[in-house]
Design a protein that fits this description.
Blueprint (H helix, E strand, L loop, with lengths): L3 E5 L4 H12 L3 E6 L7 H4 L3 E4 L18 E4 L13 H21 L4 E7 L27 H21 L2 E7 L2 E2 L6 E4 L2 E4 L1 H10 L4 E4 L5 E2 L2 E2 H13 L4 E6 L4 E2 H12 L8 E4 L13 H7 L7 H14 L3 H4 L8 H9 L1
Parallel strand pairs: 1-2, 1-4, 2-3, 4-5, 5-6, 6-13, 7-12, 10-15
Antiparallel strand pairs: 8-9, 11-14
C-alpha cells in the first residue's frame, strides 16, 4: 500500500496515534503539526514532519503538491487545553484552519477527508440510556464550549460544501472521549486547570486507597479504546461510500464497571482498593451513542472493553512511547503531588 495520507494535528493526542498506526499498516504518512520541533519522533517511524500554522494559508506551500489520497484533519484548539477563554483561537484554528485544509485538499485532488466533530453538539440529548443517533440535530450548548461547538459546526458545514461542490468524500466522526494514555493528567474545565477524574481514581487505586462510587453505580457512560478508534479510521480510509457523520463509541460501560476495572488493573497485589458506595452523592451524567451507522457503513466492530483499555493504559504508562513529543508523566505531576491528592 503506497497511498499518501496527510495528517494535520499529528502531534496531538489522537494525531500521533493515527500517524504511527497508518504508517505501520503501509500508508505513506505526512505528519503536520503546529509544534516547531517534534524532537525526531516522526523520523523514528519513517514519517516526514512539517510544522505549519494551518490558519495561515501561505504556509501550506511547503506541503506536497499532489499524489495525496486522503486528508486526516485533527488540528485545532480544544477547550481541554485552553486556560481562560480565547475565542479567537477557535475561529482561527478551526474555521479558518479548516477552510485552508479544504482548499489544500481540493488543490491536491484528495479523495476524502476525515474530521472529528465534538460530542457537545448533541449534549442536549444526554441523560438517558437511549442511544443517540449519528444524524441527530446539532445544537449549540451553553457554557464554556459554546464557541467551540459553533466553530466545529461551521467546519462541518464547510466540509459538506466541498463534498457537494467538489466530490470530496467526508467522514466526520462525533467523538466521545477516546480513552488513551497521555502523561499529562490535567485538563481544563471552564478555563480552569483540573485533574482528569479517571486519573484521580487510578492514582488512588495505585496506592490501594478507598474509592468512592457516587450516586447511581449503574449510570451508563460511553467508552471507546484508542485501538477501536484506530480501527474506525482505518475502515473510513477504505470505505466505498461517500461518508457522512458517524458516532464513535462502543456501547458504553457502567460507573460500577469502570471503578471495578480500575481497582482490578491498578491496585497493588494484597492491597486492593475498597469500593465505597455513596448513593447520596450526585450521579454522573449518562449517555451512549448509537453506532449502527458506523457498523453498517464502515464495517466497524468494537473489540476492546473498558478493562482492555485499562490494561493498554498501564502498558503505555510504563513504555512512554510518545515521550519525545509529549514528555513524561513526571514533567506534569510529581510523586508528592500524587500522594497529596490521594490523601485529600
Amino acid at each position: 500500500m503506497d497511498k499518501r495520507i496527510v495528517v494535520f494535528g499529528a502531534t496531538g493526542n489522537l494525531g500521533a496515534h493515527i500517524s504511527t498506526h497508518l504508517k505501520s499498516i503501509g500508508y505513506d504518512v505526512i505528519a503536520i503539526g503546529h509544534r516547531k520541533n517534534d524532537n525526531g519522533f516522526f523520523a523514528d517511524y519513517g514519517i516526514t514532519y512539517y510544522s505549519i500554522d494551518i490558519s495561515d494559508s501561505t504556509q501550506f506551500e511547503v506541503l506536497p503538491k499532489g499524489n495525496v489520497y486522503a486528508i486526516v484533519h485533527f488540528a485545532g484548539m480544544l477547550p481541554a487545553v485552553m486556560k481562560g477563554f480565547d475565542g479567537t483561537s477557535y475561529v482561527q484554528s478551526i474555521i479558518q484552519g479548516t477552510l485552508n485544509v479544504l482548499e489544500y485538499a481540493r488543490k491536491v485532488c484528495a479523495d476524502r477527508i476525515l474530521f472529528p466533530q465534538t460530542l457537545f453538539d448533541i449534549s442536549y440529548l444526554f441523560g438517558t440510556k437511549v442511544p443517540i443517533p449519528a444524524d441527530s440535530q446539532r445544537k449549540v450548548p451553553e457554557g464554556d464550549h459554546w464557541l467551540y461547538v459553533i466553530a466545529k459546526n461551521a467546519a462541518v458545514e464547510m466540509i459538506e460544501h466541498y463534498y457537494r461542490a467538489y466530490g470530496l468524500k467526508r467522514f466526520i466522526f462525533r467523538l466521545s472521549r477516546i480513552y488513551l494514555y497521555h502523561p499529562n493528567p490535567y485538563t481544563f474545565t471552564d478555563g480552569k486547570k483540573v485533574l482528569v477524574s479517571d486519573r484521580y481514581l487510578i492514582y488512588r487505586a495505585m496506592q490501594g486507597a478507598d474509592i468512592e462510587i457516587w450516586g447511581d453505580p449503574n449510570r451508563l457512560l460511553e467508552t471507546i479504546c484508542i485501538k477501536d478508534f484506530l480501527q474506525i479510521i482505518e475502515k473510513a480510509l477504505c470505505a466505498c461510500v461517500d461518508g457522512g457523520i458517524y458516532n464513535v463509541g462502543s456501547g458504553g460501560s457502567t460507573l460500577k464497571e469502570r471503578i471495578e476495572g480500575i481497582v482490578d488493573v491498578f491496585s497493588p497485589k494484597g492491597h486492593r482498593s475498597r469500593m465505597i458506595y455513596k448513593p447520596e452523592k450526585r450521579s454522573s451524567q449518562q449517555f451512549v451513542l448509537d453506532i449502527r451507522k458506523t457498523v453498517n457503513e464502515l464495517g466497524y466492530e468494537p473489540h476492546f472493553s473498558w478493562h482492555d483499555y485499562l490494561v493498554n493504559f498501564k502498558e503505555e504508562m510504563i513504555e512512554q512511547r510518545f515521550s519525545k513529543i509529549w514528555g513524561r508523566e513526571e514533567d506534569y505531576i510529581s510523586i508528592e503531588e500524587i500522594e497529596n491528592l490521594v490523601k485529600s
